[in-house]
Each structure stands twice: as structure tokens, then as C-alpha cells.
Write a structure and sequence with these properties.
By secondary structure, this protein is mainly α. The protein has a single domain, classed as Leucine-rich Repeat Variant (Alpha Horseshoe), CATH 1.25.10.10. It is 75% helix and 0% strand.
């Protein structure tokens, strides 16, 4: 239940960020990714995702791998899943899935891979295999893994 609440809260924050987004440049949003204020970082990630800024990919990957707040990492996973770019974000999301201890972040990263549709990437298969072996006790992760397997067959 806690995971569902965290995800619902994150989705509400995403929608509020979209409605109240400032009109900054990509470079300003990239700079915001290093802010001490978690909300500023999440808003920047959302804005960069809306702009589909490929220039910010490395910055976003750095945030998802290093930020201490799981809600920030969830937001960045969602952003990476909406960037429309394959390979680099899938590889980074696989790293997150294998190294992040927060199952809500792992869940968000799996959803991002599903959204990207980068099913030919070996990192997608590695992420799924890892979850089947190490996260099978989480019903949310198990559900997304099942959906990923089905999507990969198509």
C-alpha cells in the first residue's frame, strides 16, 4: 500500500508541475537538477521530459543514480521513459533496477522501460531477468515484468 501511495503522490506532483511549469531554457532546467530543493529537481526533470531534451540525458541519468530522495528518482525514471530515446535510458534504467533498494523506484524504472519499448536492447532483458530472480516477492514489480515479457513477444 505504501508503494501505491508513493506512486499516486508522485503522479499528483507531476501533474501539478506540468500545470505550474515555468518557461525556462533547457540549460536553466539542467542547472535546476543540481538544486538542494527536491521539488525544484522534480519540476526540472518533468520540464526536460516535456521538452524531450536529449542534451539533458546524462544529467537525468546522474540524478536517478545518485539522488537520495526516492520520489526524485521515481520522477526521473518517468521522465526517462518519456524521452523517446532508446538505448542510453534503457541501459541506465537497468542499472537503477539492479542497484536501487527502493522497490517503488525499481517499479517506476520498469514502467519507463515498458514505455520506451526498447525491447531489443539486452539491458531490458537483463532488467527483467534480475527482477524475476530478485524481486519476485513484489506483486507490482511482478506485474510489470509480466507485461514487459508480453510486449517483448510482439
Amino acid at each position: 500500500m505504501k508503494k501505491v501511495s508513493t506512486l499516486v503522490l508522485s503522479l499528483l506532483m507531476i501533474s501539478s508541475a506540468i500545470l505550474g511549469a515555468e518557461n525556462k531554457t533547457v540549460d536553466e532546467y539542467r542547472a535546476d537538477l543540481t538544486s538542494e530543493d527536491d521539488q525544484v529537481v522534480m519540476d526540472a526533470a518533468t520540464a526536460l521530459g516535456q521538452k524531450k531534451s536529449k542534451d539533458a540525458m546524462d544529467d537525468l541519468i546522474e540524478v536517478i543514480k545518485t539522488h537520495e530522495n526516492p520520489q526524485v528518482r521515481i520522477r526521473v525514471a518517468d521522465t526517462l521513459g518519456r524521452m523517446g530515446t532508446k538505448e542510453q535510458p534503457t541501459n541506465a534504467l537497468n542499472d537503477v533496477i539492479q542497484n536501487d533498494e527502493d522497490n517503488a523506484v525499481v517499479y517506476a524504472a520498469l514502467l519507463a522501460i515498458l514505455n520506451l519499448g526498447d525491447f531489443g536492447n539486452p539491458s531490458a532483458e537483463e532488467a527483467i531477468d534480475f527482477c524475476e530472480q530478485n524481486k519476485s516477492d513484489d506483486p507490482y514489480i511482478t506485474d510489470v515484468v509480466k507485461r514487459l515479457r508480453e510486449a517483448m513477444k510482439k
